[in-house]
Amino acid sequence: MYNNYSMNQLMLDIPTAYEPEENHPAYQINQLVESLDFTDEYTTGRYPYHPRLLLKLVLFAYTRGIRYGRMIERFADENKVAM
């Protein structure tokens, strides 16, 4: 299985922390994905990233017109909201 993942966990507030406004597409995608049920009954092994994180990144990249894996990776490295 994967590590336990929660967007509501306590974190240290560092100057690079960023939260988009409520009307930003990233905020809406976050609300949508967090409302989904992610119970994995048939998985084996351990994911390096939680499926919610990857789904959020892919959906946000699609809203920006990015459709390919390597371009999504570059997008996630360069875009503050995608981080």
Automatic annotation (TrEMBL):
Listed InterPro entries: Transposase_InsH_N
Segments forming domain Transposase InsH N-terminal: 19-79
UniProt-listed PANTHER family: TRANSPOSASE, TRANSPOSASE DDE DOMAIN-CONTAINING PROTEIN
Identification of the protein by name: Transposase InsH N-terminal domain-containing protein
Organism field: Weissella cibaria
The organism's taxonomic lineage, starting at the top: Bacteria, Bacillati, Bacillota, Bacilli, Lactobacillales
